[in-house]
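Q: Fold this one first, please.
A: Sequence and structure below.
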Amino acid sequence: MTLRGSLPVTIAAAVLGVALLAVARATSETSPPAPEPTPFSPRRPPRDPLPLMPGPLASEPARLPFEPVRWRQSRSLGLPWAGRLEAGVQLPREGRTFFTWDPVLRRSPSRAWRQVGSDRLVRTVLRVLGQFAHAHPHAPRIGIGDLSRPAGGDFGIRYGRPGHVSHQNGLDVDLYYPRLDRRERPPRRVAQIDRRLAQELVDRFVRAGASHVFVGPGTGLTGPPRIVQPLAHHDNHLHVRLR
């Protein structure tokens, strides 16, 4: 009696188990698979990000700002070839429109003690170069050579060849002609000079009130004869002098 009574129950349980197994398989086939963990998923902690350089874009290194000019009122005493300078203004090592060049060491930037002029000279140079760059946004920066020493005075050969007879009272500055290949260094040959841009540079300094602009005899640069004058050893730079 006991075996006969339990047989139907056993059969019913087996049938129910088969039915539940079929339902479970159907559900697993129709449900979407569990998503794989992403690098930022809680299942996989993210790595520490690399430090980013500060700047306009995280992928670009920061660019230090150009040095500010510390203006003060200067006094140019004596003559360009027999004078001195009081309270000279230091030209920065470089700027948006110019770079500096040491003609003795032949490198950029120049040494600071070779880059001091009167406040009027520094203002004139920066203004002219700013206007030039605005008119020619794709032109190379202009190279600036020697101005005067911090207190002016002798700037001859003992300060490095070739030396200067003038550049003594903060009113003289050498500027290198722009090159056709846009390299920021003095031209070694007249053929490397962008004569169109160089002539415009001469013209702009004439209009700015230069008393003299000395140019190389081989450059073909011209201007008012009393102001623009050819001078030996100036085929790679022009020499501007203010009154």
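Q: Good. Now the second chain.
A: Here it is, same layout.
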Amino acid sequence: MDDPHNELFIEKEQLPVRASLVTGEELGGVLFVQPTWRRPSIEFDALVHLNLPDSYFPLQLPDGSTRLLAKGQVVLIRGASEEGLELFGDPAPVRIQFSNGARVQGNLMIAKMTTNMRVLDFLNRSAEDFILLHEGSDAVLVNRRHVVLVNDDSNGAA
């Protein structure tokens, strides 16, 4: 079983992240994502991975051990934003408070389906559990199920 290319081995790319759980615990490690033709990013690859219907995902800790995290117990995941990445949608500045007391402030990128798409519309109509927020140079994947309060700093204009 020492051969990394055995029949159970699936090649993956690694993204360094920090996960905040409902317990208040934070775990740093790497998230495994499918390899692609481009450099993997938290904005695309991690977001797609977390929005798959699977209930758990592996996180490899710095000591090499792996933990299986229940997606429903993850409040948010932070990672470095890809430099030079073209962002789709219009930025909507928000401040979000979560069930575990964590807070983030940044921009939701809202792809407008109509001319008057607001933060409220985006949050109510998004089918995904995890949504992307940009906080400075970090990308934050927010679990909508743990959002307690959203302060829409665009005053509904986004």
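Q: Anything worth noting on the second one?
A: The first helix runs from residue 42 to 50.
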